[in-house]
Amino acid sequence: MAESAASRFVDQFSCPVCLDGLKEPVTVPCGHSYWMSSMGQKEQEPPYRCPQCRESFSQRPLLKKNTLIAEMMETLQQTALQTAAVDCDVCTTEKSRAVKSCLQCLASFCQTHLQLHYQSPAFMKHKLVEASRNIQENICLSHGKLLEIYCQDDSQCICCLCTDNHKGHSVVSVDSEWTRKKEELKEIKETCQKLIQERERGQRELSEALKLLQSSALETMENVEKVFTELICSLEKKRSEIKEQIRAQEKTEIARAEELHRHLDQELTELRKRQAEIEKLLITEDQVNFLKSCQSVCVLPTFENVPITQHTHLYFKDVSISIFKEVLDDICQQQTAKISQEVSKVCVAKTQNDFLQYFCELHLDPNTTNNALKLSEDNRKVSFTYKKQHYPDHPERFDRYVNVMCREGLCGRGYWEVECSGKQWAVAVCYKGIGRKGDSDDCRLGDNKKSWRFSFYLQNFYFTHDKKKVSVPAVCSSRVGVYLDHGAGTLSFYSISDKMTLLHRVQTTFTEPLYPAFFAGYGSSVRIIEEQSLKI
Predict the structure, then answer these.
(1) Which of 22, 289, 399, 429 could serve as 514's disulfide partner, Cβ 3.0–4.6 Å?
(2) How far is CA 360 from the centre of its chain?
(3) CATH topology of domain 354-533
(4) Which residues does the UniProt record annotate as the domain B box-type (predicted)?
């Protein structure tokens, strides 16, 4: 039955074009899947059509491998192979299909030759299992005895003679451990199902929030349009600026929601895959194979606790746009400033507690550390040292500039703080592709398009990007906070003392994950603050 079911599923996943199995499946926008080579056999002229449902596309769809279907096909093929018919070991002429395997006889028997095990007292005590090709796996390789004992300390099936090597260990029968593990897997399956339901609920809430966001943005733009159309031509420019701000905020929120949606999709895929593995394992009767495979699926994958929240309104109710009807030039400037301020308030953290929900656990990457820098044992502090460190050669190491990067690449939103000391230091972010070898601008933090640097030098603060240096006229404490909103394209630096003071903010477009990076000059050091030390 299992064999036919697995084969039937494999047939269902055949390519509709070439009728072969989906060895490298790709999915087109309409949802149908094909073999990659089948879709690339001939070039079509626009409009491009799905071979199955004939839905047309104005542009040729970008074909990417559907990893989920590929993994399912591999699992189904393995299942079909494992459940293939087992021949009777006693039949001499035409082999009949075996229905049971005997762990004592180490042989498989058809229904006819199995009767001896039911009728003869000498064979009645033998242990029968479902017919299996892997019956030898139930035998100890060292002693040739049946693996009927399970050592819980070593998570290993052993025979009665192996117990001498497991003295003092907690051992039980394979049967009891199989029963216990099966119950444990059932509980894990229930937990997995709850996690799936939570994330599905989160997706539904996110979709509703996104609809409200778009509706609110549309309504706000319509109200702004209605007011500004009543003004004279001199206000047309101001009207366009406000509409652009609203569109930009809407785009930011939509991008943030889509990123969270993709994150939830990824978690759901992992959970459903793990659930399928558990369900497959729960139906197997091969106890030893069950226990061997159980270890890899008992522990559910850990997920980052992503808050499933989405702001759904651009709060313009308190902005008195109608005042523009009464006063022209002077009031126009004042109210435009107020409107801009209201837009910028959406989803902007203000206090340290607001930022802590985005806290990132960072660790310095030893493979990037310049030889003039010394790392602490926990890879959280970097200090300039006059004694050259003999680090091994590595393609990611900065060989000229005294820089070091973190291991973690950041997308979405993130916040971290560092404690800086000395007269020359810099806190930066950069793309992974920043140069490492030589003293060109491509390797210097802030002097290229791949990095953004906030630095302290000669008692002054500066912000540098693409060799453009801006003086930051501020009194900064030794602790600096950094807030990144990758989707919104903002990077902010704060001075942390008894309060948070904004030092500098960047508004741009980030195209790759960003890696925190640091520079420590003569006598200087930079230490990454742990989360428990962030409370003011």
Answers:
(1) 429
(2) 14
(3) Jelly Rolls (2.60.120)
(4) 135-174
